[in-house]
Amino acid sequence: MTWYIHPVHWFLLARYQVIVLIRKEKSMTKSQLIAVVAKKAHLTKKASADAVNALFDEITRALVKGDKVVISGIGTLYVSVVKDKQVVPFGNEKKRQTIKSHRVVNLKVGKPLKKQVW
């Protein structure tokens, strides 16, 4: 776990001699996920990399096709369409821009994961 002093709190540190520590969030990379899978499943890194890549390829293929991907305990990945919308850049109302409709991937989190995170 990594800790750092948030830049906003330097003023407090200097003035009140208070140290405010905020946890710096880390994210897991794909290579770290492969290493964890290899260790927990007692596989080689090559075998776990093949398994993780196959899993991600199948999830990607299903989403591109428009199917839902349900992972019990985690949630449901699905594709939805965002309609055209007009946006106005801040401070310049004369330049209206249209963002074309496009597809996005959404995640509806399952109850078990939601309870664990909460």
Walkthrough of the structure:
The structure is a single chain. The protein is α+β, with helices and mostly antiparallel strands and 118 residues long. The chain has a domain at 68-118: HU Protein, Chain A, CATH 4.10.520. Helices cover 39% and strands 28% of the residues. The protein contains 4 helices and 7 strands; from the N terminus they run E-H-E-H-H-E-E-E-E-E-H. It has helices at 10-16, 30-40, 45-65, 111-117; strands at residues 2-5, 21-24, 69-71, 75-82, 85-87, 97-99, 102-109. It has a 3-stranded antiparallel β-sheet. The protein starts with a strand and ends with a helix.
- Overall strand count: 7
**For the residues shown, what is the average pLDDT?**
82
Number of helical segments? 4
Helix content: 25-40%
Please identify the top-level CATH class of the domain at 68-118: Few Secondary Structures
The amount of beta strand, in percent, is: 25-35%
Intertermini distance: 20 Å
Q: What would you report as the Rg, rounded to the nearest angstrom?
A: 22 Å
Which structural class is indicated by helix and strand composition?
alpha+beta
Order of helices and strands: EHEHHEEEEEH
The global form is elongated
- Biggest sheet, open or closed, and with what strands and sense? 3 strands, antiparallel
| CATH architectural category of the domain at 68-118 | Irregular
The CATH homologous superfamily of the domain at 68-118 is termed: IHF-like DNA-binding proteins
CATH topology of the domain at 68-118: HU Protein, Chain A
Low-confidence stretches: 1-23
Spatial strand arrangement across the major sheet: 3-4-7
